[in-house]
Amino acid sequence: MENLAKCLDNIRVPTANNKVYKDECVFSFDNPETDTGLYVSLTSFIGLGRDHVQRHYQKTGEVIYLHIRREKHEVSSPQQGDGPEKKITRLAIGVEGGFDPELGKKKFEYEDFYNIVVLPSFATIPWPNTELPELVKQSVQAIIDLPSAGKLAELEALSGTWDGEARVVSKYASGLLQLDNGKKIPPTGWKCEKCDKTENLWLNLTDGSILCGRKFYDGSGGNNHAIEHFTVSNYPLAVKLGTITKDGKADVFSYSEDDMVEDPYLIQHLAHWGINIANMEKTEKSMVELELELNQKTNEWAALQESGGVLKPIYGPGYTGMTNMGNTCYLNSLMQMLFRIPDFVHKYHEGADQIFANASGDPAEDFNVQMAKLGSGLLSGKYSVPPPAGGPVDADPPGVCPAMFKTLVGRGHPEFSTKKQQDVQEFLLHLLSLLERHTKNQANPGECFKFGVEERFQCGSSKKVKYLTRSDVILPLAIPMDAAINKDEVSAYEARKAEAESQGKKLEPDAIVRPKIKFFSCLESFMQSEVINNFYSSAVQENVTARKTTRLSSFPDHLVVQLKKFTLREDWVPIKLDVSIEMPDTLDVSALRGDGPQPEEELLPEPEVRPPAPVMDEGVLSQLADMGFPPEACKRAVFHSANSGLEAAAAWLMEHITDSDFSAPFVPPGLETAKFVPDSEALATIISMGFTKDQASKALKATDNNVERAMDWIFSHQGELAEEVGSPGPPEFRDGEGKYKLIGFISHMGTSTMVGHYVVHLLKDGQWVIFNDNKVALSENPPKDLGYIYFYERL
């Protein structure tokens, strides 16, 4: 008590405005359940594991801590059959309605124990204690009572967002036009008005037409008559017959909003067509149930998770799993992959102590600290130990929970701040952008992925050429479906499937025959030249047809290959190509090396003045934007389709949706190096906000003279603008031989990047290991042909 009384000046009482880190150490994954418990500072409210509290005391002088230790006790589970069966309603893992990873596991209750600890001697004072100074009692009680920083971050992420399955109210529901055409809909016996389909039928709530829905990617479903009707009528809302329940719920689709929606007036809208919901019974699967069924019909889930046998768990340094916090498998898979790469290991595991020692401010808000925390947690082996002797050998290890990391890297991002499933390729680009921002004047491990892309344009009129070099970190490869080497087998399988469906049967998942395509067919497709229309030729000073060829000007230490499996069907429905790609264990991409300008080539002169901006059809731009495409992508589509209408522009978008510059600022081809002239009014606006003319010009050049985007660009490039503004030299890339070996691949299960599950297979110590969230095991049959993103290391 005497030591405690000397330190009262440093004790604070937290309020609702303070962040209290009492769930987990900010430098490690120690928590109250760890044997040594968690120490929470009564000064900064930082939570610390035993390995870090001494250093924090020495650095900050914070003396008094609340020690929290949590014990868990097994509780009896309800008998089988007690209560209603938990039904899977969502294609997701670890979220409400999705696959429950805890289903069937033992249940526990928790009990917390508290003590006051005074450093440096770790003197302990029991809590509660009436002899404690009032200030100490107030501080401790507030720490116990206030929600943790982790809980507040979770609530913030959910605020104002939807979770990927919840449906928004349609803007067409209120005041929906319903025609008085005399139609009345019977309670049963429905049939499509344009074909013989009797399932997957949709009632248009405006004119009462009953038409079949879209054809699914496996060939089942309808004949697209409902959406065809919308393109003619523009009647927006339709309800799926057979999904209507007595409580007024049903699947409602808005064609204009291109999404499943809520219709608060559904009961009245159905009554207009003579439908009394009191007499309705759900007889058809909802769209979510169909999505689940379609994925269960394919053997992709089983193959990628290697669920056909019992895999041997593996423990120790580098074999630590990660908890799935509800659709974070994209993050888990990528971080496991990155910490297989030496650059990341060196900086964020071997150099972790130095990063921790240099930490200042709030460590939970420090990007490098949280990267080092994750690297140490995954690679140290501290959180990957075999189950105790005599314990259940099939018990899943808890793994580490990257909650602080996810909160930090997702903060402010419209997608990664939510609990929705995300595309791992987009997350990789986001993370590499954060690395570049937070490692100014430091070693950036993300440089190991960066390479130069050489683009050669040849003017069709003058035959003169132009070379541009840009940087990239992922090699995206289109999948040439016509290059399949087993077309006869696929055709025979499709015929068997069609015959089985005509008899009301289904083929077993093991009978699936996927198109097989050699990886080098994907490379050949990448190497082919493409025709560019409306290319501005400075030689003839007009738009011409040009030919574009893409090569690599450097080969990175680690080559990331993305197979462009996600695309759009002709009716703009997102699909994933179900293909098998023969990925090589060793890879030679030397043929992709660009040679640069050749002696016999004549270069196009640099344009002195930018010609007038191309005229674009504003109506088509607006329609494409309403479909959800980025504005810059819409400009590209209208430009490259030569203002020839909505259908041509949409076709271009479907073909180029996975281009790396899809949503980047649009510059008409041929004008990429033209002299930039900032808009005088926009320039004055930014200068008036306190920025220099050079900074304002640089921002406007990067955003095509758009003031709003220029301001966003400035705030996201503070470090770059703080440096002297001048003509940047050519980007520097690591380079070497183009020979690589496969060290890991990330696979996706599901029909869309917004649903499903990710796992990663890594080659470690000469053996393949599967990381499926918190489960880590030796891989018996790594499905290299079904991956999505592949990581190669230079030989």
From TrEMBL:
It catalyses: Thiol-dependent hydrolysis of ester, thioester, amide, peptide and isopeptide bonds formed by the C-terminal Gly of ubiquitin (a 76-residue protein attached to proteins as an intracellular targeting signal). It is an enzyme of class 3 (hydrolase). Gene3D superfamilies: Cysteine proteinases, DNA helicase RuvA subunit, C-terminal domain, Zinc/RING finger domain, C3HC4 (zinc finger). Residues 168-277 form the UBP-type domain. SMART domains: UBA, ZnF_UBP. The active site is at 329 (nucleophile), 757 (proton acceptor). SUPFAM superfamilies: Cysteine proteinases, RING/U-box, UBA-like. It comes from the Eukaryota. The keyword Metal-binding applies. Residues 590-612 are annotated as: Disordered. Its EC number is 3.4.19.12. GO terms for molecular function: cysteine-type deubiquitinase activity; zinc ion binding. This is Ubiquitin carboxyl-terminal hydrolase.
